[in-house]
Amino acid sequence: MKDKIGYLAIFGGPPSFQEKLHVGRPNIGNRQRILERINDMLDRRWFTNNGPYVQDLERRIAEMVGVKHCIAMCNGTVALEIAIRALGLRGEVIIPSMTFIATAHALQWQEITPVFCDIDPRTYNLDPNLVERMITPRTSGIIGVHLFGRPCDIEALAKIARRRKLKLLYDAAHAFGCSYKGHMIGSFGDAEMFSFHATKFFSTFEGGAIVTNDDDLAERIRLMKNFGFAGYDNVIYIGTNGKMSEVSAAMGLTGLESLQEFVSINRRNYKQYKRELEGIPGIQFMAYDESEQCNHQYIVLEVDEQTIGISRDQIVEILHAENILARRYFYPGCHNMEPYRSHFPHAGLVLPETERLVRRVLSLPTGTAVGSKEISGICQIIRLVVEHDSEVRERLKEVKRSI
Ligand code: T4K
């Protein structure tokens, strides 16, 4: 435990942690069960192409989410691309800029223009009032992102989509196991997409899924993810390869058996962070609605540089020196990355809340790989830095001068 500025690793002290603490360290579940399933799979010699594990996983996820169809995919990005195509999106699609780059790329990859809309700073999600203003005759749909697992304003977006005859897709990459007004995320809009990447609290190594209640859409998606095959030697649609492998599904089925344990560990971590960080001036803790189900996959802080005189980036630098690999998700916003930065050099002018927020937020390590001692150590470093802000500022300047 460090109680003096001089002990911080950035000023020459030893790092607080020998091993790096990551945001997004995978949860594993029952290792024995995974290996048993993989052994069975090897015995059966059925590795992919809609195998029994994939079918079982799809059934269980559809049941858990409360939808008619779940189509498992090789990753979340391909799932998004296929959902976009199967929904017939074209022209322009409205999305937030504060998201992982895959949301924008899944559109641009298909020569559809992502139109970046500003967010509501209270939810970090699309501001429905502003969505309305971004609609043009070329707009074909809206992709809402439930950022960090907090649901979009689903009712307001549904109303706009209905009134303006737009398709409504959700990028629910962060929101598996979360709910909105008592219903599971995954059951809203025309379809929703999940990511089961290794860094997500529920993982299939790489993987994802599209969930929907629309029978025709589900049928198109199934064809599209398997080259358009409707049976041996019979291609009836244009398609690609979006299939999930059996080894991924084996991981997923095993992970589902430990899902509640993952959530409760994340929740315990969240509560501890909240307890130990609440009330620090200039540090705001991103809270979740306690009345909803939540996976607590992300622990997010907002740093107010005006109040503490130390920037988010300086805090990240200090934490990294301690081997705490905090991340700046989702800096600098898609509109500040290529090719969008070149396509829309002035996009930032209509995204004031996004521009402000991407400079303030940071994500801290959580998950089953992080224990209570580590969390206390992380919180203590943050507290120490904020409580000695002027001294830290001066010493950071010295460090910069000496480089
Ligand atoms: N939409 C949204 C809103 C998304 O956030 C994402 C993905 C997608 C769509 C697309 O879904 P996928 O196609 O990925 O299924 C990571 C993930 O790669 C990405 O899946 C995720 N979002 C994004 C938020 O985070 P990076 O570039 O930050 O990953 P990386 O390699 O820096 O890893 C993050 C941390 O996790 C590191 O500190 C290391 C640790 N880690 C990572 C891996 C892969 C491990 O400890 N073990 C591991 O196996 O994107």
Q: What does this protein look like?
A:
This protein has 403 residues and is of the alpha/beta class. Helix content is 40%, strand content 15%. It is built from 15 helices and 16 strands. The protein has helices spanning 31-44, 52-65, 76-86, 101-108, 128-134, 154-163, 215-224, 246-257, 259-277, 305-308, 312-321, 340-343, 352-358, 372-387, 389-402; strands spanning 21-22, 69-73, 92-96, 113-117, 119-120, 125-126, 139-145, 167-171, 179-180, 183-184, 191-195, 208-212, 283-285, 299-303, 324-325, 361-364. The strands form five sheets. Strands 2-12-11-8-7-3-4 form a seven-stranded mixed beta sheet, with helices on both faces. Strand 5 (119-120) and strand 6 form a beta hairpin. Helix 2 packs across helix 8 (246-257). The longest helix has 19 residues, at 259-277. It binds ligand T4K. The site of ligand T4K has 23 residues, from helix 3 and helix 4.
Condensed summary:
The chain is built from 15 helices and 16 strands.
User: Which stretches are low in confidence, meaning pLDDT under 50 for 5 or more residues running?
Assistant: none
Calculate Rg over CA atoms.
22 Å
Helical content class: 25-40%
**In total, how many beta strands?**
16
Question: What count of helical segments does DSSP give?
Answer: 15
Classification by helices and strands = alpha/beta
Mean pLDDT: 96
Shape: globular
Largest sheet: 7 strands, mixed
Give the strand content.
Answer: 15-25%
The molecules bound to the chains, other than polymers, are:
ligand T4K
Major sheet: order of its strands? 2-12-11-8-7-3-4
Q: What gap, in angstroms, lies between the N and C termini? A: 27 Å
